[in-house]
Amino acid sequence: MRHRLLALVCVSASLLSGCGLVSQDGGTERRTLTVWLMKDSASQEFLRRFTEDFERAHPGLDLDIRIQQWTGIGEKVQTALEADGGDGPDVIEVGNTQVPQYAEGGRLLDLTLESMRDWGIRDWLPGLAEPGQWMSQQFGIPWYAANRVVIYRKDLFRQAGITEPPRTRDEWLDATERLDSGGDQGIYLAGQDWYTLSGFIWDEGGDLAKQSGGVWAGALHSEAALRGMDFYRRLQALGDGPVDADEEHPPQAGVFAQEDVAQIVAVPGLAQAIVRQNPELKGKLGFFPVPGKSADKPGAVFTGGSDLVVPKNTDDREGALAVVEALTGAEWNTELARTMNYVPNKKSLAKAVADEEGVAAMAAGAAQGRATPGTPRWGAVEADNPIKEYMTRVLSGADARSEARRASDRITELLDLDAR
């Protein structure tokens, strides 16, 4: 514990501070907990209110919340986890797919017991909970989620005689084909949007890579993954998305704002950027979950977001767990979701955002959320990204089976090289 003696103690932080009086003769000892959160994950007002509430409920604790930038955060977190002593962070926000790379070195606290006994692990969103595991132990505690939905033009749907959003893949293809006429694109889907492809592959029972006997290998050549790619090909053809670029080149918000696109697949927040670029679309945009193979549940989607971890070198385990429990608990997690238009970390909390159309669609999809393969070496695959090249080749007319095998081999090679 960090002892603050003699006088008035002020907690320095990038957003907020707390002060406490500590006596020399065994009186109340103020302990400071350092929490690293990422830029823009929570508003300044949210953090102020949370800190006041937490410190009121925990009279012996002060919070020192320090805001971090995503750029270069991996190296900074690794350095903090390897440091000696108790001067580093007690709680760290990390990307949900980053947990394995930090847990691999044995420098995070195993929170499996608390997760099962106290924190409702069975109700967590799988796309946040599963990548928070390493070697069957829970190190990352889900905080918030965001995932893709379909953003659509309500007016173009009405003009095409489509009265309700599609709920199945077949309905989606039929509707998109009807919308793809008269100079309008049924959907704008870039050829290298591999996160969207991943959802279709997962729906079919496939994966990007699989582990067998402790060894990871590419799995794009499986029959299930090939079916997912075939659906992507059929859907992508109902618009003019470039086959050799991803959704950011050009940014699809700008394309959608040009008024000749009926649908895109994106996070709901992108609607705000669309309306800023074309104010005439205000009130004309709607949202629905990415359809699944059957109407009883939405399609699988990649779930992005953040987990909270506790470094093993914390000198206040009890206090760190209290912070995690408060931030991820129902009260403040619901408040965060409402404030920032996120999906709460538990499926049972989805009703808390049901009055916001875009977030409600996102929450429905998040129940089927998944994450990238849970290997610390997946970053090497994303850096090289043979999945994008594979998609471009198939959409350009190449044989899907042979190209999938080529891409799988490259994924296997990258995972193996990075492991050496």
Features:
420 residues; alpha+beta; D-Maltodextrin-Binding Protein, domain 2; 2 domains; 17 helices; globular
Describe this structure in words.
Keywords: Signal, Transport. Belongs to the bacterial solute-binding protein 1 family. This is Extracellular solute-binding protein. Pfam families: SBP_bac_1 (PF01547). The chain is α+β, with helices and mostly antiparallel strands and 420 residues long. It has 2 domains: 8-146 and 305-370, D-Maltodextrin-Binding Protein, domain 2, CATH 3.40.190; 148-302 and 372-419, D-Maltodextrin-Binding Protein, domain 2, CATH 3.40.190.10. The chain is built from 17 helices and 15 strands. The strands form 5 sheets. Strands 3, 4, 5, 8, 14 and 15 form a 6-stranded mixed beta sheet that branches. Strand 1 (8-10) and strand 2 (19-21) form a beta hairpin. The chain starts with 7 loop residues before the first strand and ends with a helix.
Indicate the CATH architecture of the largest domain.
3-Layer(aba) Sandwich
CATH class of the largest domain: Alpha Beta
Low-confidence stretches: 1-26
What structural category do the secondary elements indicate?
alpha+beta
Mean pLDDT metric:
90
Query: And the CATH topology of the largest domain?
Result: D-Maltodextrin-Binding Protein, domain 2
**How many individual helices?**
17
Kindly report the name of the CATH homologous superfamily of the largest domain.
Periplasmic binding protein-like II
Relative strand content: 15-25%
Could you state the oligomeric state of the chains shown?
single chain
Estimate the global geometry from the Cα principal axes.
globular
Radius of gyration: 23 Å
Total discrete domains: 2
Tell me the span between the first and last alpha carbons: 39 Å
The total of beta strands comes to: 15
Family: Belongs to the bacterial solute-binding protein 1 family.
Keywords: Signal, Transport
Protein name: Extracellular solute-binding protein
Pfam families: SBP_bac_1
